[in-house]
């Protein structure tokens, strides 16, 4: 059965080997479980798991539609878990944590809240198709208590598009399924570079204006 995948591509170690073992043991639900864990542990890359699931389906060892459905279910389950982490954390705890972080102002969190109020639906939907943010976007959605039904619909649609694209890529590329992760790796590195530049820019601005970074919630309260 799915042992033919391991024989063809020899994914005996690393993420590919682990994902192959999951699918060998559980079939399509195993692919879904792997994607659910990918949401909780972003270092597990969906760009490896999804094409491998597609390749497995192309070998007849897994139903193609089942691969898409189960990986989408896994995406939603993982995202929902992070949503509830954000909901349990809550706004007050988030502000309290921000007040203790160096170079971070409570106003930064408030601006983020205002942005999420205006663009949260788009952020949740499109965020499912951006490395790193695929998982993290669920946390602010929980903190801001986006309606669960809205969150589930947006997450399901975004995940379905992302998962279908990668599963089909692995399906049609066959034994060359791994080339998908090579290209997406470049995309992910680009996202990381942009994030890193943003963080560096933020820190530089705050260091040039050291007084601004020290303003905390207590000072805001005194002004009131």
Provide a descriptive summary of the structure in words.
It is built from twelve helices and no strands. Helix 4 (46-58) runs antiparallel to helix 10 and helix 6 (106-127) packs across helix 9 (148-173). It is mostly helical and 224 residues long. The protein has helices spanning 3-9, 14-26, 28-40, 46-58, 64-100, 106-127, 133-136, 138-143, 148-173, 178-208, 210-213, 217-223. 82% of the residues lie in helices and 0% in strands.
Helix % is over 70%
Mean pLDDT: 74
- Please report the distance between the alpha carbons of the first and last residues: 68 Å
Tell me the major beta sheet. Answer: none
Tally of strands: 0
Q: Which tags fit this structure?
A:
elongated; disordered C terminus; 82% helix; mainly alpha; 224 residues
Give a short summary of the structure.
By secondary structure, the protein is mainly alpha-helical. Helix content is 82%, strand content 0%.
SSE inventory with pairings:
Elements: H1 3-9, H2 14-26, H3 28-40, H4 46-58, H5 64-100, H6 106-127, H7 133-136, H8 138-143, H9 148-173, H10 178-208, H11 210-213, H12 217-223
């Amino acid at each position: 059965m799915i042992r033919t995948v391991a024989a063809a591509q020899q994914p005996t170690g690393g993420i590919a080997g682990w994902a192959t073992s999951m699918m060998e043991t559980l079939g399509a639900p195993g692919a879904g479980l792997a994607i659910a864990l990918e949401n909780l542990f972003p270092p597990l890359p969906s760009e490896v798991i999804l094409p491998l699931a597609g390749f497995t389906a192309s070998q007849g060892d897994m139903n193609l539609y089942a691969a898409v459905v189960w990986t989408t279910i896994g995406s939603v389950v993982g995202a929902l878990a992070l949503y509830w982490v954000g909901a349990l954390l809550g706004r007050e705890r988030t502000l309290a944590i921000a007040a203790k972080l160096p170079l971070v102002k409570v106003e930064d969190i408030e601006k983020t809240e205002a942005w999420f109020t205006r663009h949260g639906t788009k952020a949740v939907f499109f965020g499912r198709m951006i490395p790193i943010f695929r998982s993290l976007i669920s946390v602010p959605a929980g903190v801001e208590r986006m309606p669960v039904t809205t969150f589930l619909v947006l997450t399901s649609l975004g995940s379905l598009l992302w998962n279908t694209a990668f599963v089909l890529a692995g399906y049609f590329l066959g034994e060359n399924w791994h080339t998908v992760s090579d290209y997406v790796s470049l995309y992910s590195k680009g996202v990381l570079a942009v994030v890193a530049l943003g963080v560096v820019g933020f820190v530089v601005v705050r260091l040039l204006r050291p007084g601004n970074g020290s303003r905390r919630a207590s000072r805001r309260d005194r002004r009131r």
